[in-house]
Amino acid sequence: MLVTFKCRAAPDVVMLENLAQYLVGIVGKPLGERGVIMHDELDAAIAKLESAIVTDKQERAEHDGHFHEGEEGHEHHEIPIGLAQRAYPFLDMLRLAKQENNDVLWGI
Length: 108
Known about the structure:
The protein is an alpha+beta fold. 46% of the residues lie in helices and 18% in strands.
């Protein structure tokens, strides 16, 4: 199932339900049929998501040594997409909403 996030300050952001649930969970919201991140909650939501991205990048950097690209005797491993790439459209929407003092809604 797809979830569409809406905000007057940004284009709609559409993502799969499991990613949406993960991202709104990071910012401290449950993913219900409908929901909102109020404009006065955006600072905390942005900070939580940015912190999770930094942590993810650090963990990925620590594990980069486990990908033995091009070494003989090791199978090719595709490096998975990080949280920063998956969260960027949503984080961008939150930042734009904050600038415009708008709420971010879903399920409407």
